[in-house]
Design goal:
Layout (H helix, E strand, L loop, with lengths): L18 H13 L18 H6 L7 H12 L5 H15 L7 H5 L4 H7 L5 H13 L5 H12 L3 H32 L1
Helix pairs in contact: 1-7, 1-9, 3-4, 7-8, 7-9, 8-9
């Protein structure tokens, strides 16, 4: 049976924000253990809080920065554990010359992870463009995906994948994400 594309049941182009803002929300959801189409590092396992996940050790050192960023976005004080951890890195390690590289302070930036996430920066914009073109009356899905793929410099398969992944996610989690978008726009 041939695969059929359906007209989007869930139109979050109404989440009329810049695609980067929605992408920021999706990345924030991923690093805080919430459902998200954004990939996390191989082996990443959320332990229920930034502190617990950070204290687990391993390659979770960047979680300290994500915890501080989360507080900054929400306008809340940085928790004592995070302030102490950052203080120790800066004053005990960096300032005393014990560490001189980013990876020693905050963990490695993995090239395999970068290869996986770099093209995904277009995921939200691709999804919104497909929704927009479909809403404008384009029902030729092959042409639609070709046009979108050309616009973003990706393959047709990637355009389909990004649209399908985002559409499914937004159908399942859209209201939660829209709430987070509203909160983010209230803060900004």
């Amino acid at each position: 049976m041939p695969r059929r594309n359906k007209t989007p049941r869930f139109d979050y182009s109404a989440a009329a924000v810049h695609p980067d803002v929605l992408l920021d929300v999706l990345i924030g959801r991923a690093v805080s253990g919430k459902s998200s189409p954004w990939p996390t590092a191989r082996g990443f396992e959320w332990k229920g809080s930034f502190e617990d996940t950070y204290n687990e050790g391993g390659d979770n050192k960047q979680l300290l920065l994500w915890a501080i960023e989360d507080c900054a976005q929400r306008g809340t004080p940085v928790p004592k554990w995070a302030a102490k951890a950052l203080h120790d890195i800066l004053f005990r390690d960096v300032a005393r010359g014990r560490i001189t590289k980013w990876k020693d302070a905050f963990g490695p930036i993995r090239t395999d992870q970068q290869r996986q996430i770099r093209p995904r920066r277009h995921m939200v914009a691709v999804w919104r463009k497909v929704c927009e073109l479909n809403k404008a009356g384009c029902k030729d899905w092959v042409k639609l995906y070709e046009d979108v793929a050309d616009e973003f410099g990706i393959g047709i398969g990637k355009a389909r994948e990004y649209y399908g992944t985002m559409q499914k996610f937004m159908e399942e989690r859209g209201p939660d994400v829209c709430m987070e978008l509203r909160e983010k726009s209230d803060i900004a």
